[in-house]
Amino acid sequence: MRMTEAPPRPNRPVYLDNQATTRCDPRVLAVMLPYFSEEYGNPASAEHVMGHIAEKAVEDARSHIAALLGADPREIVLTSGATESNNIAIKGAARHAKATGDARRRIITVATEHKCVLESVADLADEGFEPIVLPVGADGLLDPVMLRDALTVPTLLVSVMAVNNEIGVIQDIQGLARIVKDAGALFHTDLAQATGKIPLDLTGWKVDLASVSGHKLYGPKGVGALFVRRRPRVRIAPLFSGGGQERGLRSGTLAPPLIVGLGEACRLAALEMADEAARIAALRTDLLTRLRTGMPALAVNGSAEARIAGNLNLTFPGATAADLMKRVPDLCVSTGSACSSADVEPSYVLRALGLTDEAAARTLRLGIGRFTSAADIEYAAAALIAAHEGASAPAATSPHS
């Protein structure tokens, strides 16, 4: 069989890992720069003009974040990212309820959640709470009937992520939130992979708490937000003490450059999200078509319909992910969640879908984004096909052996 010729190496790495992080949009960087230099005031310094300028910039950014989420600006608490937001939401809600005499101890989440959610829920077991982790189907979706059954025991909080960070599957947050609210529990969702990718309406969906990360939507790293519903008001306990910033829920001096960047990223997403999703979906279709031409047995993990435009989680038929990545060093892809990349264990998300450890070891996550070009897709497909053929080919045998 004639081997596919590897394509020429690109001038710079081809980046297809946009679920791990995204490039900060140059337009975002441009609005951030003045707040690192000329406009360096502390937004809490209400006594002078520099403080007022910084405060206004923060509040404008808060409004852009709220608009993208379908929320009120007063419901946006600024944080360092989704990991912090998830911890504040889950632990803060549980501890406030316990401190005010609420007898409910059950907290429900899903097996495919981000580690920071799973660990936050698990940590609360030491404080007398009952963690319940529900499975998903082979498509990565939570069964609403299973959620209803779990809610027959009085439940304090349910946490379900909107878009999975490994397989890109979109949960029915509106429908799941309705079930949870009918049972009288709080509903939290991790929006790190959803914000700026799919339309959101937290007010209409009756979500109580939601977490956002800046670097997943072409904003800077180190900044995020937590949505906390005002009507009816959701009460949570802060995780640490300080100067009382952000309504006392997240003390500490705010970082105007990062917050301005997050606000601008949200503003741009609100304007461009629909067109961008269509372009990215077309690139994803092209990539999958090219790959399947060279590898007909290639398998896509997770729902084909309920997934964001930019995600492909693929199990290759005859080569390990590690071998493929070694053979194509100029292609930036991943074997799963970047937050677990130091762990040699197979992806727990893929295990939850029913994949064997052997199949999980043959799986790559490809994330297409705003700055992915058609040429990037062409290179990635050709390079992966050539690498797969090389890795799958039987080793040459010496005639003297």
Write a short abstract of this structure.
The protein has 401 residues and is of the alpha/beta class. It contains 12 helices and 12 strands.
Set out the fold topology:
Layout: E1 14-15, H1 26-32, H2 49-69, E2 76-79, H3 82-99, E3 106-110, H4 115-123, E4 130-134, H5 144-150, E5 155-159, H6 173-182, E6 186-190, H7 202-205, E7 209-213, E8 224-228, H8 256-294, E9 299-300, E10 311-315, H9 321-327, E11 331-332, H10 348-352, H11 357-360, E12 363-367, H12 374-392
Parallel strand pairs: 1-11, 3-4, 3-5, 5-6, 6-7
Antiparallel strand pairs: 2-8, 7-8, 9-10, 10-12
Helix pairs in contact: 1-8, 2-8, 3-4, 8-12, 9-12
Describe this structure in words.
This protein is an alpha/beta fold. It has two domains: 130 residues, Aspartate Aminotransferase, domain 1; 243 residues, Aspartate Aminotransferase, domain 2, CATH 3.40.640.10. It has twelve helices and twelve strands. The strands form three sheets. It has a seven-stranded mixed sheet, sandwiched between helices. The radius of gyration is 23 Å and the shape is globular. The C terminus is likely disordered.
Tell me the helix content. 25-40%
Unreliable runs? 396-401
Straight-line N-to-C gap: 23 Å
CATH top level of the largest domain is Alpha Beta
Strand portion: 5-15%
Number of strands: 12
Number of helices: 12
Largest sheet: 7 strands, mixed
Question: How would you describe the oligomerization state of the chains in this entry?
Answer: single chain
Number of discrete domains: 2
CATH superfamily of the largest domain: Type I PLP-dependent aspartate aminotransferase-like (Major domain)
Topology order in helix (H) and strand (E) letters: EHHEHEHEHEHEHEEHEEHEHHEH
* Order of neighbouring strands in the sheet with most strands: 2-8-7-6-5-3-4
The CATH topology of the largest domain: Aspartate Aminotransferase, domain 2
Mean pLDDT equals 94
| Radius of gyration using CA atoms only | 23 Å
CATH-level-2 architecture of the largest domain: 3-Layer(aba) Sandwich
